[in-house]
Amino acid sequence: MDVALLSVLRDGLLRRSEAAALTWGDLELRDNGTGLLQLHRSKTDQEGEGVVLYIGREAAAALRAIRPAEQLVDPKTPVFGLSARQIGRRVQAAARAAGLGEGYTGHSGRVGMAQDLVRSGVELPALMTAGRWKSSKMPARYTERQAADRGAVARYYQEGGVNVTGSC
Description:
3-stranded antiparallel sheet; mainly alpha; 46% helix
């Protein structure tokens, strides 16, 4: 279950409360090995307009591994059966068990995917859409190191800029 939980938190850029609210009826495990999840409500979607999120092959496979047999699946049953607080503790315990140490939270999958998306070339507006952020403040903070590697000075040197010292 931990693999499924961590993978879904990451792929969906989910908050703990969003993962806690997921039911089997919110998931579509597709024939191509990926999945979609319907997020009905979130911190930034209080009106409940909802959004459909992509789940990659690893997360979908982990979900298939914990999914009850088809005839036993109740669409209203929570996928993880954990509260938001329990999800946070589960993430911390999994990080410790993997030898990653302290400092991981129920938000770590969200932050990590944001960083990986920026590292891969995703620009801030697309990142904000993926993470359902209304303001650029948090995603910019989460990805400041990755953004620095893609900033104007980094590009200057990556494109062969001349390093002149003492020219101030």
